[in-house]
Design a protein that fits this description.
By secondary structure, this protein is an alpha/beta fold. It has helices at 3-23, 63-74, 100-104, 122-125, 129-138, 169-178; strands at residues 28-35, 46-51, 80-83, 116-118, 142-143, 147-151, 154-159, 184-188, 203-206, 215-216, 220-221, 235-239, 242-246, 264-271. The chain has a single domain (3-271), classed as 4-Layer Sandwich (Purple Acid Phosphatase, chain A, domain 2). It is 23% helix and 24% strand. Strand 12 (235-239) and strand 13 form a beta hairpin. Pfam families: Metallophos. Residues 46-211 form the Calcineurin-like phosphoesterase domain. Keywords: Hydrolase, Metal-binding.
Length: 274
């Protein structure tokens, strides 16, 4: 092997090592305050911890890493945890796949007084979703599919996965309406449901895009897997009066690598206008 070829191989290995290290990094906690008009008088603000795309699988996201991240995030004392899908992974590059119970168990270590609410993602549908739901509910975790639930003063609508065609926005909003009055949020795996919402809610929490997972300087995200391109690619977005939070996720898809899109979570406080 010539010197140039050797240098190229070493440079390639260095890039892979850096990408894997990026994927294994502790998540960045991004924070925001959302003022909600008509917030119930006397009710304290609610801290929502929004997670997405955990993709439990080896080598980068074994269950033990989920437990370690839970310990870190529990220190934030969230009131409610919303998880916008893709808990599991079946990626071909995985060094180890885990069954539904092994995936669900570490999520029980997250702590919030109003618990955790999950909206399924496309990867959850690509395995045995029924077994995944059973495992999660066995640990006291609420899974909603085009349904709604009330936690404290907050109404939570969960839209099932749009990417695999299981979403039903009208049914979700009908379920929200049955809960009565109150500030409402929506959790969905993909943000592509936002243009279909019949009315604005306090916030929409989503994932799926991974913020590109590989986002290059100048070029930006290689792909967001969204039919709207970069419109809902990443971060806190204001779209036609709707506040949307799109997380980069905790795990990875296809390859256990990240560049320019570090793992993150959102800690969003909902409360009265300041």
């Amino acid at each position: 092997m010539g010197l140039a070829a050797l240098v190229a191989v070493l440079a390639g290995l260095l890039v892979l090592a850096l990408g894997y290290s990026n994927a294994r990094a502790d998540p960045i906690v991004r924070e925001a305050y959302v003022p909600v008009t008509g917030w119930p008088q006397g009710e304290a603000p609610i801290k929502v911890l929004a997670l997405s795309d955990v993709h439990v699988a080896g080598p980068d996201m074994p269950p033990s890493r989920v437990e370690r991240i839970a310990g870190q995030l529990n220190a934030l004392s969230p009131d409610l945890i919303l998880l916008s899908g893709d808990l599991i992974s079946e990626k071909r590059t995985a060094t180890k796949l885990y069954n539904e119970e092994e995936v669900a168990a570490p999520f029980a270590t997250f702590q919030a007084r109003f618990g955790m609410v999950v909206a399924p993602g496309n990867h959850d549908h690509w395995v045995d979703l029924g077994a995944m739901v059973t495992a999660l509910e066995g640990h006291g975790i609420t899974v909603l599919r085009n349904e709604a639930v009330k936690r404290g003063p907050l109404l939570i609508g969960a839209v099932d996965d749009d990417y695999t065609g299981h979403d039903d926005v009208p049914a979700t909003f009908a379920a929200l309406g049955e809960l009565g009055e109150g500030p409402a949020v929506v959790v969905s795996h993909t943000p592509d449901i936002v243009p279909d919402l019949p009315r604005a809610v306090a916030a929409v929490f989503a994932g799926h895009t991974h913020c590109g997972q590989i986002s290059l300087p100048v070029i930006g995200p290689i792909s967001t897997l969204s039919r709207y391109g970069d419109r809902f690619a990443c971060g806190m977005i204001r779209d036609s009066g709707q506040t949307v939070f799109v997380g980069a996720g905790l795990g990875t898809s296809i390859l256990p690598l990240r560049f320019g899109a570090p793992p993150d979570v959102w800690l969003v406080t909902l409360g009265p206008p300041r």
